[in-house]
Design brief:
Blueprint (H helix, E strand, L loop, with lengths): L24 E2 L4 E6 L6 E6 L5 E5 L4 E5 L8 E6 L5 E9 L2 E7 L1 E2 L4 E2 L5 E6 L9 E7 L6 E8 L4 E6 L4 E6 L5 E5 L15 E7 L7 E7 L4 E7 L11 E4 L5 E6 L5 E5 L4 E5 L6 E6 L9 E6 L8 E6 L12 E6 L7
Parallel strand pairs: 1-24
Antiparallel strand pairs: 2-27, 3-4, 4-5, 5-6, 7-8, 8-11, 9-10, 11-12, 13-14, 14-15, 15-16, 17-18, 18-19, 19-20, 21-22, 22-23, 23-24, 25-26, 26-27
């Protein structure tokens, strides 16, 4: 989602965790343009189906589309329009082809939102595109502002995390019952020190090797950091104090974790996709830069799921939709096979 250019907030090392400058070293990787949208489209989040197709959520309309990455310049199919809403900002898959999408009423031009407007919808993609997607509302969030980051907490119980960007909280939703509650709320999830901009963004559950503890990792765009908090595997509530994993990641948006805990992140205002080493916190720039408009407003990343896409990173950009220089949103595939443990 759109923000003003923000400067990184310099945070001290927490519990011995190192800080690192996001400029880092440049290690360019091969990048394929899967699909380049025109200037009327702004993208936000994406997910990859088990069969390999990408699902993209629009930032400037309540639409989700499917893009076939294996056809020439992609093959785009409309999946669904969420009537009565303005944006589709979050997506997560619980069971195969069972996606949940977060929608809200947000003006991308004025960055104003309607408090109490967000909802979560179930999108059954089984058989798509031969059969239309089946869509139903799961839950309405009467106290929410803008729902964005989403992650599975328990597939068996149907529990997912849902982040609220402006309010700085992370909810747990039972997709089977619609019941939801605030689970995570701490100093690293809030918008600090100002009360505007984008806070909590990407959220991912991760259990490091040789550890019994599960953590919820989350990015905070305003605070320019990725932090983590130990969680209870059933309730999703914190069982310890949060800690900063890496800071000085200017305008960090969505990110992905490989099996080792290496972080692959989109840096919004720097137009970059980067890798953060899980041991050294060394930041490697994989593609893009402040003066490179190909990846204008980098926003989301996710790993591919097919055997041929193993270790490859899919990424989307907003493209400068509200800027004077609008290059159009894009869907890309980065060859990170030599840099990711998947």
């Amino acid at each position: 989602m759109r923000i003003s250019l923000l400067f990184a907030i310099i945070l001290g090392a927490t519990n011995g965790i190192l800080c690192q400058n996001a400029s880092g070293y440049e290690v360019p990787v091969k990048v394929e343009t899967i699909y380049h949208f025109n200037s009327s489209v702004s993208l936000e989040k994406l997910a990859i189906r088990k069969s390999g197709e990408a699902i993209v959520c629009f930032d400037n309309s309540p639409n989700i589309y499917q893009v076939d990455p294996d056809s020439i310049n992609g093959s785009v199919r409309h999946i669904h329009t969420f009537e009565g809403y303005l944006v589709a900002h979050g997506i997560v898959e619980v069971e195969d082809d069972q996606f949940y999408v977060a929608v809200s009423n947000l003006s991308v031009w004025t960055h104003t939102y309607v408090l109490g407007s967000p909802s979560i919808f179930h999108v059954n993609m089984t058989g798509f595109p031969e059969h239309p997607a089946r869509v139903r509302e799961v839950a309405h969030f009467a106290d929410a502002a803008i729902l964005n980051g989403m992650e599975v907490l328990s597939k068996k119980e149907g529990l997912i995390y849902v982040g609220d960007i402006p309010l700085g909280v992370i909810n747990v939703l039972n997709v089977n019952t619609g019941h939801h509650y605030v689970a995570i709320n701490n100093s690293y999830t809030t918008i600090y020190p100002f009360n505007n901009g984008s806070g909590i963004y990407g959220i991912h559950v991760f259990q490091p090797k040789h550890e019994s503890t599960k953590y919820l990792y989350f990015s905070n765009q305003k605070q320019a950091l990725i932090a983590r908090v130990p969680i209870h595997p059933k309730s999703g509530l914190p069982v310890g104090e949060p800690e900063v994993v890496v800071s000085n990641l200017t305008s960090v948006a969505e990110f992905a974790l490989d099996k080792e805990g290496n972080i692959f992140a989109a840096l919004f205002s720097l137009n970059q996709f980067v890798r953060v080493d899980h041991k050294t916190n060394e930041v490697l720039v994989l593609a893009g830069g402040p003066d490179i408009d190909t990846y204008t407003e980098a926003v989301s990343v996710v790993f591919g799921r097919t055997e041929s896409d193993k270790g490859k990173l899919y990424a989307v950009t907003i493209g400068g939709f509200t800027a004077l220089h609008n290059v159009g949103a894009g869907l890309f595939r980065l060859d990170t096979q030599d840099m990711a443990v998947v």
